[in-house]
Amino acid sequence: MIPVRNFVFKNPNWRPKVLITHSDVPEAGIKLLREKCEVTICETTERAELLEKCKGMDGIYWATHNKLDAEALDAAGPQLKSLSTMSVGIDYVDLAEVKRRKIPLGYTPTVLNDAVADIGVGLALAAARRFHEGRSKIESSEWEKRPQWLLGQEIRDSTVGIVGFGGIGQTIAKRLNGFDVGQFLYCGHNKKPEAEKFNA
């Protein structure tokens, strides 16, 4: 969320103006902001609405993958003091422009590690054991009574490749370690010392 500590309360009656750019944000967070701030919420993610509602804001909670660039920062104005996103990746943010304007930017680099790892491991198991094919056959009464049918393959002793070995990649490896994987391989921009504990 928007770090309220970035705002200087010179006037005790002054309440910073904060824009939330998406209506699908947890109500608990909005409630916290409303205790100290004047909050506006965008009802759509149309760029024209975002740029219009940015005007005069002191803080923006950019909860969309719409470009956060010079145009958006200009629309907000020079009084903008704080930005925050609701994502791990920030490739839609013009970081050079945000830094040039010296506006603090908050984001959530580790918050989705567990959720993404769970889904990744679930999909790997489902693919290896052919869950979707089996479920489809059962639903259409096409079950074949033979021992090797839809057997799939084991995760145990297999080689697992992970593209990148950041927080999510490491969390996936941690989950799969319990399946007695034979070997982990990974690729990335540089060597990760954390990979040694997984023999990757």
Structural description of this entry:
With 200 residues, this protein is of the alpha/beta class. The protein is built from 7 helices and 7 strands. The chain has helices at 27-36, 47-54, 70-76, 95-100, 113-128, 131-139, 167-177; strands at 17-20, 38-41, 59-62, 82-85, 105-106, 159-163, 183-187. The strands form 2 sheets. The protein has a 5-stranded parallel β-sheet with strand order 2-1-3-4-5, with helices on one face. Strands 6-7 form a two-stranded parallel ribbon. Strand 6 (159-163), helix 7 and strand 7 form a beta-alpha-beta unit. Helix 2 (47-54) packs across helix 3 (70-76) and helix 5 crosses helix 7. The chain is elongated, with a radius of gyration of 23 Å. The two termini are 36 Å apart.
